[in-house]
Design goal:
Distance between the termini: 14 Å
CATH architecture of the largest domain: 3-Layer(aba) Sandwich
CATH topology of the largest domain: Rossmann fold
Number of strands: 8
Structural class: alpha/beta
Number of helices: 11
Radius of gyration: 21 Å
Order of helices and strands: EHHHEHEHEHEHHEHEHEH
Length: 321
């Protein structure tokens, strides 16, 4: 069982921010103003742990998949090597915007003799600006390598029961920290995308995010909730809203004094969780007199690892590539 786990990526240190930002902008270098702004955001949060979290996630996913495999199903006909490090499941990690890049991970898979694989993205919701771009990079890299093996691609997992339950556990824990959970507003956030991208795929992305939020709210019996968006790009086009800060303004104007925010579109802690929610949204909440608590991220926790393992197993068992 061979797996390519893909994730967004983040610079390993400040010297890599410009190259990273340029890659995000499809090869167009950012202005000095935009570059300085992004560097300052990294400095404000200290460091994004996204690379470390995702490397750990890949390692734990590989371990979970190997735990699920039958023990020597054909028996042993001779003594194996003293240290049997290689399991039946192997997880390779590919970054969208930083090394190890998706193409590099695929080259390693070819070198290792992989015959078929499952590919999935840590992002749970499908968007033309997200999962579709990962698939495009994957298919381009496979084509450049001569299509060495078939790959089953996992499209999304926004309604997976384990994923919904994992989110619900963290929202429930965050609600313990507000004085009146029944009156507190719960905000479910995901990365904003340009409206033209939403229109181009028929609104699939916001519908999936809304579905995740509704399922979590239903599981917890939460009545007072809404979806908000964050991390809109600095472009001249219109992006999906309302932004979480605008949503907080509206809630406060309606009498809300306590709130929980859950970044359901971001499984791992990183810049856009720490800056957009822990800094910017918290500043807005303090100004408005709203007590805001953020639900913990899934990161590399076992309940999330098991969700990804379910997805891999389900895809691996299908013959269609």
């Amino acid at each position: 069982m061979n797996v390519l786990l893909m994730y967004y990526g983040t610079p390993y240190d400040e010297s890599q921010v410009e190259a990273y930002y340029t890659d995000i902008r499809h090869g167009r270098k950012p202005s000095q103003e935009l570059l300085d702004e992004l560097i300052e955001r990294y400095r404000m949060i200290g460091k994004s742990p996204l690379n470390e979290v995702t490397f750990s996630l890949a390692r734990r996913l590989e371990a979970e998949l190997n735990l699920r495999q039958p023990r020597f199903p054909g028996g042993l006909e001779e003594a194996p090597l003293p240290r049997t490090t290689a399991g039946d499941a192997r997880v390779y990690l590919g970054g969208k915007h930083n090394p190890p890049y998706i193409a590099g991970a695929l080259r390693q898979m070819v070198d290792d003799g992989v015959k078929r694989a499952v590919a999935l993205v840590t992002a749970p919701h499908y968007s033309l600006r997200s999962i579709a771009e990962y698939r495009e990079r994957l298919e381009l890299a496979l084509e450049e390598l001569g299509d060495p093996f078939p790959v089953k691609f996992v499209q999304d997992y926004y309604a997976h029961p384990g994923y919904v339950a994992a989110l619900a556990r963290r929202v429930a824990a965050a609600r313990w920290r507000v004085r009146d959970p029944q009156k507190a507003m719960v905000f479910f956030t995901a990365h904003s995308v340009p409206l033209k991208a939403v229109d181009a795929d028929g609104g699939v992305y916001p519908r999936q995010v809304e579905t995740t939020a509704r399922l979590v709210a239903r599981l917890l019996g939460v009545k007072n909730w809404r979806v908000a968006w964050q991390s809109a790009g600095r472009t001249g086009e219109e992006w999906l809203g309302p932004d979480i800060n605008d949503a907080l303004e509206e809630a406060a104007a309606g009498g809300v004094t306590e709130a929980v925010v859950a970044a359901i579109g971001f499984p791992a802690d990183h810049l856009e969780v720490f800056f957009d929610l822990d800094y910017e949204a918290q500043e807005t909440a303090r100004r408005l007199g709203v007590h805001l608590v953020r639900a913990a991220s899934l990161n590399d926790d076992l309940d999330y690892v098991r969700v990804l393992a379910d997805l891999v197993e389900g895809a691996w068992q299908t013959e269609e590539s």
